[in-house]
Amino acid sequence: MDITNIETIPGKTIIAHYGLVSGSTVRSKNAFRDIGASLKNIFGGELKSYTKLLDETRQEAVSRMTEQAKVLGANAVVNVRFATSDVAAGAAEIYAYGTAVRVE
Amino acid sequence: MEDLILFALLFCGSYLIGRYKEKKHFADIIRREKELLLLPALTMKRAEDRPVAKAEMVTGNVVIAGDYFKQVMAQLASLFGMRIAVAESMMDRARREALLRMKAQAAGADAILNVRFESMKIGARDKVAGVEVLAFGTAVYYRQ
Q1: What end-to-end distance do the CA atoms of chain A give, in Å?
Q2: Which residues of B touch A84 (CB under 8 A)?
Q3: Is the pTM of this model over 0.80?
Q4: A-B interface: how many C-beta pairs under 8 angstroms?
Q5: Do B138 and A82 count as a contact with CB atoms less than 8 A apart?
Q6: Which superfamily is assigned to B2-142 in CATH?
Q7: What is the pLDDT of residues A35-61, one digit of tens each?
């Protein structure tokens, strides 16, 4: 599955468009107590556990999006974007969306 | 009185240690930026008209937390509507780190197109607790 955040897959030709595909994941912060603890971390710096958590969450959203594209018969997703929203206190949604296409 | 001593200790301690950690991080960022200087990160969607062998999306993210000193300074500055310099350096540090991680993922690429940044606030709503920055773009590998 080819994924880009521009309108084309450079070096390939788009032969069919299948429309919008998306994937979302909602993660609550409470489930990861160590994060709350490290947020109180008074000396600042990178919160590695949180970096990893958000990276995994985003990858999950992307894989849900590509699953959806596969079902439609696409072999690439172009113009992918990310959005986040606060759905509830202590929870965040990560949303990935793009256009499913078939390329050659 | 004890509260005041605790506050002073936290304030000074977090200033010294936070500043030391930030300086070290910036030195590391500058070193890695020099190493990756030949891989341009562009904000446009096409660069050179050359045949492309491979294109893929690359991402880099980082979560940076502010220290206690920064939180106090931010609260003070927002009383008077001043510029929050301590938050500016935190954002700069997070964006540059995210960009570097994205570049590291695109090892061997010729350029990264359409680079975009997204940021998300982490932690309590009324505090400068921390920030997540995501950098993403499309890495292209030209045909040799």
Answers
A1: 12
A2: 118, 120
A3: yes
A4: 108
A5: no
A6: Hypothetical protein apc22750. Chain B (3.30.110.70)
A7: 555 555 678 888 888 888 889 999 999
